[in-house]
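Researcher: Can you fold this with 3-methyl-2-oxobutanoic acid in place?
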Amino acid sequence: MKTDKVTTTRLIEMKRAGERIAALTAYDCCSARVLNEAGVDMILVGDSLGMVVLGYPTTLPVTMEEMLHHTRAVARGNTRAMLVADMPFMAAGVTPGETVRNAGRFVKEAGAEAVKIEGGAEMRDHIEAVVRAGVPVLGHIGLTPQDVLVLGGYKVQGKSPAAVRRLLNDARVLEESGVFAIVLECLPAPAASKITRAVRVPTIGIGAGAGCDGQILVLHDILGMYPGRKARFVKRYAEIGGAMRDAVARYAIEVRKGTYPDKEHSY
Ligand code: KIV
């Protein structure tokens, strides 16, 4: 099992050394333990929590209190991975002071080691203030799900040369603002590769092709536990949802038939 604690500087060294970064989301202590045992480098308590765990239709209703609650749970199970908490809708971007206060709560009250902030160049003042306050920031550009209402849906971004130029500028501004890595979500692979080559900090792709320095996916997606429509970039590595359903159905049958508990499972 890997034991060396992953830090922001280690992630930047990994990019330099050409070592790819494996990241996943987690929302509870038990999953965080499994991800650490499996050697994942970065765990994101994503606001995807709202959709895959809490049953909201989008990430927009997720609150600071919900994010703090789940970040604390993940922190209890985390050992080696870099632990990043997602700033939910409206927690970042209103005023830099408010962004700093909310980012600080994740570190001070929940055990996060960094926060993720969605948005490009327009977030410069906020990111600089958070980094200055001592909280590392993971940037996030491309498809930013908190902008779903403005974007009119979850769509691939960066499809025109002008859009790629804007994203390149966003990535450079984020790097100058002090982010330690940047999530690139739902971009054509060539655009993501271009951005990856243009910055010194690692890029972590999700639906952005193989040219990024690392990859992140939602845990429930790779385990087949989220019944929503499967995005093209999602690869299912297990069908845990189906396995859970079968196990629970067998349990219910045995309880009804009276074959559970049997002698072996009784005192
Ligand atoms: O909320 C989330 O899980 C994310 C990802 C990058 C997967 O933002």
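Model: Folded with 3-methyl-2-oxobutanoic acid in place. Strands lie at 21-25, 42-45, 82-86, 114-118, 137-142, 181-185, 203-206, 214-217.
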